[in-house]
Amino acid sequence: MTDALMDLCGGGDVAEAFGKAAIVGVDGEIEHGSALIHTLHFGNIFREAVKAKSYLSFTNTRGGPNTPLAIPMMDKNEPGRRSHYLTIQFAITDAPRADEIVLAIAVANGGRPHHRIGDRFQDLRDLGQDVDNPAGV
Predict the structure, then answer these.
(1) What is the pLDDT of residues 24-51, one digit of tens each?
(2) What Cα–Cα distance (Å) separates residue 16 from each residue in 19, 39, 46, 49, 135?
(3) What is the per-residue burial (b if ≥16 Cβ within 10 Å, else e) of 70-97?
(4) Closest-CA residue to 105 (of 44, 21, 32, 14)
(5) How far, in Å, CA of 44 to CA of 52, rounded?
(6) What whole-number distance in Å separates Cα of residue 33 and Cα of residue 18?
(7) Are 32 and 24 in contact (CB under 8 A)?
(8) Strands 86-90 and 58-62, how do they pair?
(9) What's this model's pTM, rounded to 2 decimal places?
(10) What is the pLDDT of residues 78-126, one digit of tens each?
(11) DSSP characters for the chain?
């Protein structure tokens, strides 16, 4: 999947935002999708292909054919860069069947045009919070 996506988008250097998702058919469990996309063989290969530093955002859901699948994306290197908080949503009319799993990965070559929200880390600084420990733990 990763190689095909890299071919389509022009390579990992073009990618600025990325994400992954799974939808499990009604005879399965969400854990079945998680077991596939939350492995080093899936996520790390994708992360390395786009030369990312940040974690790979994801969603997992369960449903029948034509259930919407949303892929959350974020900046591949700066998780606080809100301009790259994106969501791609689509549905496949005949999938997943009851015993199928749909896996998806996505990249974007930029953020939202005319975004109006700032940098998460700057907002934390403005609130007087520690950027390296925003939860105060």
Answers:
(1) 999 999 999 999 999 989 999 999 999 9
(2) 11, 22, 13, 12, 27
(3) ebbbbbbebbbbbbbbbebeeeeeebbe
(4) 21
(5) 9
(6) 18
(7) yes
(8) unpaired
(9) 0.86
(10) 888 889 999 999 999 999 999 999 999 999 999 988 877 777 778 888 8
(11) -HHHHHHHHT-TTT--EEEEEEEE-TTS-HHHHHHHHSSIIIIIHHHHHTT--S---EEEEE-STT--EEEEEEESS-TTBGGG-EEEEE-BTTB--TT-EEEEEEEESS--TT----BHHHHHHHTT--TT-TT--
Q: Which CATH class is domain 2-126?
A: alpha beta
| Side-chain half-sphere CA neighbours of 47 within 13 A | 17
* Count of Cβ atoms closer than 10 Å to residue 113 Cβ: 6
CA 116 vs CA 16, 43, 44, 87, 130: distances in Å: 18, 30, 31, 16, 24
Of the chain, the end-to-end C-alpha distance in Å amounts to: 38
Residue 6 has pLDDT above 70, yes or no: yes
Contact of 73 with 88, CB cutoff 8 Å: yes
β-partners of residue 90 are: 69
